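Standup notes
- DV: blocked on the single-chain target, sequence here:
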Amino acid sequence: MIGSLRAVIKPRRSNLSVVLGAIVVNHGGDFWDGADGKLTSFGGVLGLGFKANVTPRFPVQIRAEGNFYSFDPDEGDNTSAGFYPGKMQSDLVFSIGVPLGGR
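- DV (later): unblocked, structure below
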């Protein structure tokens, strides 16, 4: 499960926007039931967005975001054997949407 708190910075009269924020990632399910380490990680969100006006009344928003966090489910145990070495993770999210409310 992923939860985030983001700030969208959009200069006036610009179609570009920047996304900055914090993220919480929790790994769960049957596969992770026996993990010794923490399954919840904290990290950051960084993204860029663009608003394209297809018509004057139909804008489309295109956004690319990266979720960056560190994950080590066994907290360094068995890293010499290659089991779950802790490292930086990056999840990339691309989205296209239509804003509601006419803006």
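- Follow-up: Residues 2-97 form one domain.
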